[in-house]
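Summary for the steering committee. The consortium agreed at its last meeting that each partner would contribute one worked example illustrating the joint modelling workflow. Our contribution is presented below. We chose a case with several input lines so that the handling of multiple components could be demonstrated. No manual editing was applied between input and output; the record is shown as generated.
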Amino acid sequence: MTRHVDERLIPYLGGELAPDEAREVQGHAAECPACRKTLAELERLAADLARTVPPPIHWGAYRAELRDKLERRGQARPGLLHRWIWPPVSVALAAGLVAVLLYASLPGGNGRGPIPGDQAAIENSILASRLDLISRLELVQRLDLLEDLDVIGGLDRLPLRGEG
Amino acid sequence: MDSLDLSDEALCRRVAGQGARAFDLLVERYQERAYRIAWSILRNQEDAKDCSQEAFIRLHESARTFAGQAKFSTWFYRILVNCCLDHRRRGRGWRRLLAWRDRDGGETADSDPVEREPAPFVDPGDTLDEDRRMSRLWKAVEELSPQQRAAVLLSCREGLPTKEIAEVLSLSEATVRVHLHRALIRLRRRIGSQP
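What follows is the complete predicted structure of the assembly.
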């Protein structure tokens, strides 16, 4: 007779053994009264556990109660249901907050309004964007050189020292 | 595609995207299983109803965290079993206190959990002996450790394979096999030799 298969009886009952192993357990149980008895008892035990049914319940009332609980939970914790119900409001609030923070972080911000120099810089940047100059930033950064070029180009026209 | 045709996993993703209809459908698909599992673990109708509903509420709240790596059913059973085991842990202190009060007050606290239930078995063919056997069986189930009890019930009543039970209980498959083996052998010893 092959060795006892106690530890494999439960996986066997659950249908979780490979076909070869299952055949081995079957073969052993056929010739071993002790394992056969254990197998029968475990089988009955599993069947008994499976056939017990809970008291009946009214599913319509169950779902209505669940909806009430969900709603109450949402009211008690606004972060949950309100997150589902009011996303546009929360997005608008967040956008407003970001705008205020950005405004406050601008030079001359903090609600005091831009100082004149900053105002000019802002106007320049607006003008530059309209003129599509920002896309040619390298050129813009060298405009001072162009100014120098004007000076250089007009050197011959500069009055000589001592001339009226 | 009609919501009715969608898989559980697809419905769960819709719940994450605020799909009220998807949530209703998941509840309808799982309400009986959820209540049955909760009742198996808790052995009380009201507690089973509350815990299974709590599991659905947690599903609603955390649908976004469902990664889709496990089956939806496995993920949901894990929520459900945790709800039930939490409930038992919370209730243990109160039950002890009430049992102590009843003992001192002269009230008979029936120690048999099945006897406390109004009508746990609906099979009309059950004989008195059979009822007694079932009472002993469920009393023995109550005495198992929470994880052994959950493993046995998920295996024998819900037909879950060891791998899925391991995922539900966050244990290794080997540990689940040990739990199942010890639990069933213990139950067998308690009632197996009796008629």
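Residues 6-51 of chain A form one domain. The radius of gyration of chain A is 43 Å.
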